[in-house]
Amino acid sequence: MLFSDKIKQLRIESGKRQKDLAMAIGVDVPAYSRYEHGERRPKREQVLKLARIFKTDPNELVAMWLADEAYSHIAHDKMAQRASVLLHGVLNSDAPQVVDEPSPVEQPVVAEPQDNTPRDMVKKVGRSIMPHYEQGEAGIVMRRIEDESIDCIVTTPPYWRRRSQGTESIKARTMDEFIDGVVQTMAQAWRVLKPHGSLWINMGDDTTDGFVQGIPWRIALAMIDQQGWRLVNEVVWNKITTSPQGSQDHLRKVHEFMFHLVKTDDFYYNDEELRRTFALIVRNDGKGRKKSDKLKEHYLQPEGIHGLVPGDVWTIGVQRSGIAHYCVAPDTLYRLPIVATCPRDGIVLDPYCGTGTACKIAYEMNLRSIGIDVNSDYIKQARASIEQKPLSLF
């Protein structure tokens, strides 16, 4: 019996749910499910916690976990049988005799407090297309959103070490804490997103002592490995211009990443409408649209009757703002994801909404939306942009 089969058997015999075990060992339900399917391996300390929960011999379960690791490497090789004989000989003859050591003392598993926060935000939004804004920290406010109720999430988390106005919505002393903060919020995103929904997350990187830290990819890979997200595309946002950079030992940074992530392979995607929107944006370049919001046509490839096939490099200028915010998300950067992955009766969420670009676009498209930001001034600005500014498609 494989390790994955064993823990599934023990779970069923104990009458526990995957959700309970995932919480007990500190992972998400998708990650635990992969353990039972043999798609991923838990850590040794997690195996010991499972043994204690199942009230089974920890040494036996760890031994099975180790055997499963060896088996996974040789199972499909034609020399597997011979390799197993050699391995058996090494462990029983050549290697020194090892006496089983007692299992390491574990810290008690403390159950997370029951979250009694009422989840009724989407219900309160109702059918109104007027954006619904909430002021507060994203991870906390999102607890009030119902499970699997959001169709499309488009957002830009705060940049690590970029804001100095006391408006950080992720409190972190180190880069690792910052990454963990974003990943924890994305666990809430997983919970509220519908099975056919999409998450688009735009992230900037950081340079420390002259070296790029790879923060966007660290976050994306943690989401994939720990939470079960699937990466559809990594879009390179070519910002054209950036703040002056005087360094003479590295290139000027003019891009950011936007990741398109989903929960299942059955996600909503309106390719036809996306192509039409791309074509319309390209045709309107230079015809009264803001220079900062133009999309360069040479990154697109003509194909089919519905217009241009979008590429994964988007040249869109940075949109500056007079308020205490480094820049406002350009309309095009958010409009394309919403057009592509939010159905007509859907609802859009931006957990770090700033001045409300995503919600404004949703409003223009007759979609419902929820915006969250820790900064009350940004929320006021977002509301004002809907109430005072005439809205049009472009």
General description of the model:
By secondary structure, this protein is of the alpha/beta class. It is built from 14 helices and twelve strands. The strands form three sheets. It has an eight-stranded mixed beta sheet, with helices on both faces. The longest helix has 18 residues, at 175-192.
Number of strands: 12
Strand order of the largest sheet: 1-12-11-2-3-7-6-10
Report the span from N to C terminus. 61 Å
Proportion of residues in β-strands: 5-15%
Look at the helices and sheets and give the structural class.
alpha/beta
Rg over CA atoms: 25 Å
Largest sheet: 8 strands, mixed
Count up the helices.
14
Question: What is the residue-averaged pLDDT?
Answer: 81
Which helices and strands, and how do they pair?
Elements: H1 3-14, H2 18-25, H3 29-36, H4 44-54, H5 58-74, H6 80-94, H7 121-125, E1 132-135, H8 138-141, E2 150-155, H9 175-192, E3 193-203, E4 207-208, E5 211-212, H10 215-227, E6 230-238, E7 255-262, H11 271-284, E8 301-302, E9 308-309, E10 313-315, H12 331-341, E11 347-350, H13 357-364, E12 368-373, H14 376-388
Parallel strand pairs: 1-12, 2-3, 2-11, 6-10, 11-12
Antiparallel strand pairs: 3-7, 4-5, 6-7, 8-9
Helix pairs in contact: 2-3, 4-5, 9-10, 11-12, 12-13
